[in-house]
Amino acid sequence: MNPLFANLPTTVFEVMSSLARETGAINLGQGFPDNPGPEDVRRAAADAVMNGYNQYPSMMGIPELRSGIAAHYRHWQGLDLDATTEVMVTSGATEALAGAILGIVEPGDEVVLFEPMYDAYLPLVKLAGGVPRFVTLQPPHFRLTEEALAKAFSPKTKAVVFNNPLNPTATVFGAEDLALLADFCRRFDAIAISDEVWEHVVFDGRHQPVLGLEGMRERSVKIGSAGKIFSLTGWKVGFVCAAPHIMKVLAKSHQFLAFTTAPNLQAAVAYGLAKEDAYFDEMRRDFARSRDRFSAGLETLGFRVIPSQGTYFLNIDITPLGETDDVAFCRRLVMDHGVAAIPVSAFYAEGAVKNVVRFCFAKRDETLDAGLERLAGVARRAA
């Protein structure tokens, strides 16, 4: 067996979700909402499967979705994309990431990774033969610094994998951070593989894509996710945007991974992307309200909350609780108190931070309130 995969531990998301199922715990760990998603988008998918085309669609994605993606990003992010040469549909953002990394990185190339990071990044870089160079971001702000980037970038740097907003920290990188990253990419002739799946789940202002930064149009891959935009995480419909000379290679990589994506889901996503601004604004307001409700509840109980600027997630610093091991803390949390959370150290490859724990607040009020009721026992015990 390939040791890269054979030696990987079971993902922490599956471990904690399994414990939640076994114990009947409230699952505030894995990042999925507990609502079914917008009804009109789901009905569009049902109609397309009953009355539409169900054979192989174009490898690049159905034309109406590719055009819809280009129009959506033009409206929301000011990007001018050619739908025929710069937009591709994938079977989820993880497939898009795999295709981008495998298409760009050659054996021996260095790839800059920011930790904490989505757990797929490092195995994919290693699978491509890349050499990871880590930038370890520190709580509570998790910002980029010129000193840290200077240590990670080198003449061998081929690419950087960048997640904004950042899962798991719920950080949104602002103009200063993005300008610093773009400067290093230009200086070292590196391609930015920009994982922007949370682009619509931001709570202050609009998302700024790396692709739109000065000098980055020809050296960026933008990755998005319909699953995150519409809270339909099981659909696995991803978007890739890149300049034609990059997209030609990414398309060939995609050809031998998933090849294509269910046409009815593509048709429904095309419908959804054209929805009025009010839908997207209300979606953000609803998530912000849930964030604020859960954050206020945690603070009332005495937890130290790290502010959430985007994503479905909220983090706490467990140091004031006298805790020094986030993994052990999360295991006790699910076994003794009936609440599943995620230890953020699982998102680090080296230099792990052990005092931060992530919760998902994309839940119904009653679910969050029940979780807070159980968490009150943790705070009382610590006091």
UniProtKB/TrEMBL annotation:
A Pfam family of this chain: Aminotran_1_2
Cofactor list: pyridoxal 5'-phosphate
Alphabetical UniProt keywords: Aminotransferase, Pyridoxal phosphate, Transferase
GO molecular function, one term: pyridoxal phosphate binding
Record-linked InterPro entries: Aminotransferase_I/II_large, Kynurenine-oxoglutarate_AT, PyrdxlP-dep_Trfase, PyrdxlP-dep_Trfase_major, PyrdxlP-dep_Trfase_small
GO cellular component: cytoplasm
Limits of the Aminotransferase class I/classII large domain: 25-375
NCBIfam families, A to Z: PRK08912.1
Name of the protein in its database record: 8-amino-7-oxononanoate synthase
